[in-house]
Amino acid sequence: MLDRRIRSDGAGHASHEDLVDHLVRSTPLQRGEAARVVLDVLAYFDESTEEFVRRRHRELQSKGLRNEEIFDRIAGELPHRAVAPPELSTRQLRRMIYG
User: Fold this and answer.
1) Beta-carbon neighbour count of residue 27 at 10 Å?
2) Number of domains, the chain
3) Which residues of 76-96 are buried (b: 16+ CB within 10 A; e: fewer)?
4) What are the pLDDT tens digits along the chain (99 aa)?
């Protein structure tokens, strides 16, 4: 996960302060918790296709799934990412994992 910080815009305001304010107003989250949620969401959307494939492979492998099922599942999940990558073959997915 990225180590992002809510940065100052030069005028002393954090770049995502309005979103943090909205979360504090609209949820039971405290300010620090809301800031962490914003950072987690930003990190999630910053994840590259290769990082996503590697992370999901590890997660699914740890649940005992075999590669054939893992690659089918990952291929089905990729089009639903915020910025969907081009369709990848099983071979391309394997190369991301094993080089």
Assistant:
1) 11
2) 2
3) eebeeeeeeeeebeeeebeeb
4) 344 444 544 444 446 899 999 999 999 999 999 999 999 998 888 899 999 999 999 999 999 999 999 999 999 999 998 777 889 899 999 999 998
31 lies in the same domain as 62: no
Residues 7 and 34 reside in one and the same domain: yes
Q: Which of 26, 35, 27 is nearest to 5 (CA)?
A: 35
Closest by CA to 20, choosing from 39, 43, 2, 1, is: 39
61 and 70 Cβ atoms separated by less than 8 Å: yes
Q: Does residue 34 share a domain with residue 4? A: yes
Both 53 and 94 in one domain: the answer is yes
